[in-house]
Amino acid sequence: MMSRHSVALALTIALLSGPAFAASGGAVKMFDTDNDGTLDLAEVKKAATALFTKLDPDRDGTLDARELRGRLSAKELAAADPDRDGTLTLDEYLAVVEQRFNAANPDKDGTLDAKELNARPGRALVRLLR
Ligand SMILES: [Ca+2]
Ligand SMILES: [Ca+2]
Ligand SMILES: [Ca+2]
Ligand SMILES: [Ca+2]
Which range is the signal sequence, renumbered to this chain (predicted)? Predict the structure, then answer.
Protein backbone atom coordinates (compact mmCIF):
# COMPACT_ATOMS: atom_id res chain seq x y z
CA MET A 1 0.00 0.00 0.00
CA MET A 2 1.27 3.48 -0.89
CA SER A 3 1.75 5.95 1.96
CA ARG A 4 0.73 9.58 1.59
CA HIS A 5 4.42 10.43 1.40
CA SER A 6 5.16 8.12 -1.50
CA VAL A 7 2.13 9.45 -3.42
CA ALA A 8 3.54 12.97 -3.02
CA LEU A 9 6.92 11.73 -4.16
CA ALA A 10 5.43 10.04 -7.22
CA LEU A 11 3.61 13.27 -8.11
CA THR A 12 6.82 15.26 -7.76
CA ILE A 13 8.65 12.85 -10.07
CA ALA A 14 5.79 13.04 -12.59
CA LEU A 15 5.96 16.85 -12.53
CA LEU A 16 9.76 16.90 -12.86
CA SER A 17 9.69 14.63 -15.88
CA GLY A 18 7.03 16.77 -17.59
CA PRO A 19 7.58 19.11 -20.55
CA ALA A 20 9.15 21.95 -18.51
CA PHE A 21 11.89 19.67 -17.25
CA ALA A 22 12.44 18.18 -20.70
CA ALA A 23 12.91 21.69 -22.10
CA SER A 24 15.72 22.49 -19.67
CA GLY A 25 17.73 19.28 -19.56
CA GLY A 26 16.51 17.84 -22.84
CA ALA A 27 18.86 19.39 -25.38
CA VAL A 28 21.98 18.49 -23.40
CA LYS A 29 20.84 14.90 -22.83
CA MET A 30 19.78 14.47 -26.43
CA PHE A 31 23.06 15.51 -28.04
CA ASP A 32 25.69 14.97 -25.32
CA THR A 33 27.44 11.99 -26.92
CA ASP A 34 30.41 11.99 -24.48
CA ASN A 35 28.05 12.35 -21.46
CA ASP A 36 29.96 15.17 -19.76
CA GLY A 37 26.78 17.16 -19.14
CA THR A 38 27.56 19.88 -21.68
CA LEU A 39 27.55 20.28 -25.46
CA ASP A 40 30.75 21.14 -27.30
CA LEU A 41 30.93 22.38 -30.89
CA ALA A 42 31.66 18.91 -32.29
CA GLU A 43 28.52 17.48 -30.63
CA VAL A 44 26.44 20.41 -31.82
CA LYS A 45 27.72 20.07 -35.40
CA LYS A 46 27.04 16.34 -35.35
CA ALA A 47 23.44 16.96 -34.27
CA ALA A 48 23.05 19.73 -36.88
CA THR A 49 24.40 17.45 -39.62
CA ALA A 50 21.95 14.71 -38.63
CA LEU A 51 19.06 17.19 -38.75
CA PHE A 52 20.27 18.60 -42.09
CA THR A 53 20.15 15.11 -43.61
CA LYS A 54 16.71 14.52 -42.15
CA LEU A 55 15.36 17.83 -43.51
CA ASP A 56 16.68 17.11 -47.01
CA PRO A 57 14.44 14.30 -48.29
CA ASP A 58 15.27 15.03 -51.95
CA ARG A 59 18.94 14.51 -51.03
CA ASP A 60 20.21 17.24 -53.33
CA GLY A 61 22.59 18.33 -50.55
CA THR A 62 20.89 21.67 -49.95
CA LEU A 63 18.01 22.97 -47.86
CA ASP A 64 15.58 25.44 -49.36
CA ALA A 65 13.21 27.63 -47.33
CA ARG A 66 10.49 24.98 -47.45
CA GLU A 67 12.79 22.22 -46.21
CA LEU A 68 14.00 24.46 -43.36
CA ARG A 69 10.38 24.60 -42.13
CA GLY A 70 10.64 27.98 -40.47
CA ARG A 71 13.90 27.28 -38.62
CA LEU A 72 15.38 30.39 -40.24
CA SER A 73 13.45 33.54 -41.13
CA ALA A 74 13.78 34.89 -44.70
CA LYS A 75 16.25 37.45 -43.35
CA GLU A 76 18.30 34.83 -41.48
CA LEU A 77 18.31 32.58 -44.55
CA ALA A 78 19.60 35.45 -46.72
CA ALA A 79 22.36 36.19 -44.20
CA ALA A 80 23.34 32.53 -44.09
CA ASP A 81 23.43 32.23 -47.88
CA PRO A 82 26.48 34.14 -49.18
CA ASP A 83 26.18 32.69 -52.71
CA ARG A 84 22.53 33.86 -52.82
CA ASP A 85 21.15 30.78 -54.51
CA GLY A 86 18.27 30.62 -52.03
CA THR A 87 19.39 27.35 -50.49
CA LEU A 88 21.85 26.31 -47.80
CA THR A 89 24.54 23.71 -48.29
CA LEU A 90 25.68 21.77 -45.23
CA ASP A 91 28.70 24.10 -44.95
CA GLU A 92 26.48 27.18 -44.99
CA TYR A 93 24.15 25.57 -42.44
CA LEU A 94 27.03 24.62 -40.13
CA ALA A 95 28.41 28.18 -40.36
CA VAL A 96 25.12 29.48 -38.89
CA VAL A 97 25.23 26.74 -36.26
CA GLU A 98 28.77 27.78 -35.27
CA GLN A 99 27.77 31.48 -35.07
CA ARG A 100 24.85 30.58 -32.83
CA PHE A 101 27.04 28.28 -30.73
CA ASN A 102 29.42 31.20 -30.07
CA ALA A 103 26.52 33.57 -29.35
CA ALA A 104 25.14 31.04 -26.86
CA ASN A 105 28.52 30.64 -25.12
CA PRO A 106 29.29 34.02 -23.50
CA ASP A 107 31.81 32.49 -21.06
CA LYS A 108 33.79 31.13 -24.05
CA ASP A 109 34.68 27.89 -22.27
CA GLY A 110 34.08 25.84 -25.40
CA THR A 111 30.94 24.14 -24.08
CA LEU A 112 27.27 24.92 -23.55
CA ASP A 113 25.64 23.89 -20.30
CA ALA A 114 21.89 23.54 -19.74
CA LYS A 115 21.63 27.14 -18.50
CA GLU A 116 23.29 28.54 -21.62
CA LEU A 117 21.11 26.36 -23.84
CA ASN A 118 18.01 27.67 -22.07
CA ALA A 119 18.89 31.32 -22.63
CA ARG A 120 17.55 32.98 -25.78
CA PRO A 121 20.70 32.45 -27.96
CA GLY A 122 20.87 28.84 -26.78
CA ARG A 123 17.27 28.21 -27.78
CA ALA A 124 17.97 29.75 -31.20
CA LEU A 125 20.80 27.24 -31.58
CA VAL A 126 18.69 24.26 -30.48
CA ARG A 127 16.15 25.10 -33.21
CA LEU A 128 18.87 24.20 -35.73
CA LEU A 129 19.58 20.86 -34.03
CA ARG A 130 16.17 19.19 -33.83
CA1 LIG B 1 29.49 16.66 -24.16
CA1 LIG C 1 16.94 19.64 -50.64
CA1 LIG D 1 23.63 28.87 -50.82
CA1 LIG E 1 29.82 27.92 -21.76
Answer: 1-22
Ion ligand 4 nearby residues (CB, 5 A): 105, 107, 109
Residue 69: CATH number of its domain: 1.10.238
- CA 1 to ligand 3 center in whole angstroms: 63
State how many domains the chain has. Answer: 1
pLDDT in tens, 102-122: 999 999 999 999 999 999 999
pLDDT(59) > 90: yes
Contact 104, 112 (CB under 8 A): yes
Question: Does any domain span residue 6?
Answer: no
